[in-house]
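Issue 218. Parser rejects a valid record. Input:
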Amino acid sequence: MEFQDVVRRRRMVRSFDPDRPVPPEVVDRIVDNALRAPSAGFSQGWGFLVLDTAADIALFRDSVRPAEQPENWFAANVEAPLLIVALSNKDAYLERYAQADKGHADRSEGWWPAPYWDIDTGMASLLMLLTAVDAGLGACFFGLPAGRVDSFREAFGVPAHFNPIGAISVGYSDEPPRDLRARRRPKDDVVYRGRWQHTPE
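Output the parser choked on:
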């Protein structure tokens, strides 16, 4: 598929054909492409938990399901043949930038203008979403309830220094096509050239 077609077709898909698993070679390609994402200082402070059995996906739902209003959380109700949880590792960045060529030996977070460990893991997640589309699949990036992160870690043995920024459900879409063009914000509302200018109200 041409790159522009992949970008144009990418959308969040929340419903999948339950009888069609994702082939193992496609799972590998999705994860391998995530590892090609850029990262500050080539820190590569990320981890990806692949869940591709019904039992593991059921455990994921149970571990992240909040006691109150679980119906409001896609994570607690997700049905997909494949889940990939994307986790960021801040310590990898603080350690990398404490090295001599970076010079931040105090390992302070204060000089970071944004949490690049989360940003880079997000870029890796986008590569997984695009790879899914290129393989003829649908995918959705979604968040975990903040109050259930510890429960998720315990269920899957995830170390405390890895923080789940979200998960990606992947499968063969059984959703009808949707036209979202009317809801897309006009380019002139979000793109500025030369300097930031707002139209007076």
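Fixed in the parser; the record now loads. The longest strand covers residues 163-171.
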